[in-house]
Amino acid sequence: MTCPARPLLRRSSRHRLLAAGLLCLGLAAAGGARADLWAFVDARGVTHFAAEQLDERYTLFFRGPRFDSELDIAAPMQPGTAPAARTRVQSYFDLLPAYKSARPHLRRAAERSGVDYALLKAVIATESGFDTLAVSPKGALGLMQLMPATAERFGVAPTRTRSLAQQLHDPAVNVPAGARYLAHLLDLFDGRLELALAAYNAGEGAVRRAGQKIPPYRETQNYVKTVLALYRQLQPLAPVAAARAEGGARSSRIRMTLPGGASGTFDEKREQ
């Protein structure tokens, strides 16, 4: 399957909204794949997401709709589009203290870089589960799991009081640098979101060597599917659906239990 290039659309001179890319992954299963999401909570309380059951620790977080190669992933969710899955994903973040503390940094980074807020949210959830102290086996650090060399390319440097690693464990530094890198990749790959995400995971060279396609690495293919599945569910309701929700008879306050036993009440009329 070939995904046509799509330009970035601008909301204003300061905002680039990602209407980029179609929800097609260039995978053998494209067209029949479901946007399922699996998750497990580790001993530190960090949630790990995946588009498939990577091992026995993962349980099904939600069963999503089938991927539609004609569906623009940046379009608002329409009425009847996997509402239970969408509600569960949205409510998970509403109850996550680590997300709440990082939210101001995401908002500022989205405004300054033009990368969609929901996309940053989906990338961080996939990369680190909003664990500011996350360190990958390869040495990527912080919320957006930046390699030190990449962080330096996008403006992060050690100071007299903090090393580069300490800088990258600070969300106020890590998130803007990661957003700048993601914006660069979107420009580099002509707004093709699936390629930008693949490059974020596997490197720009790997995407080029694969012929401007998602590299044939299971980790990268899973990563792209996971981010896109989260991103799809994090889109705001379409105006018609939102109006219906506001006019509904049931309360907008919902109680739920998260994986790992955490529970809480949230208000669907939340602020990002």
TrEMBL record:
Name the Pfam families for this protein.
SLT
Indicate the segments forming the Transglycosylase SLT domain, all copies.
107-213
Taxonomic superkingdom? Bacteria
Stretches the record annotates as Disordered: 252-272
Q: Which InterPro entries match?
A: Lysozyme-like_dom_sf, Transglycosylase_SLT_dom_1
Which organism does this sequence originate in?
Comamonas endophytica
Q: What family classification does the UniProt entry report for this protein?
A: Belongs to the transglycosylase Slt family.
Q: What is this protein called?
A: Lytic transglycosylase domain-containing protein
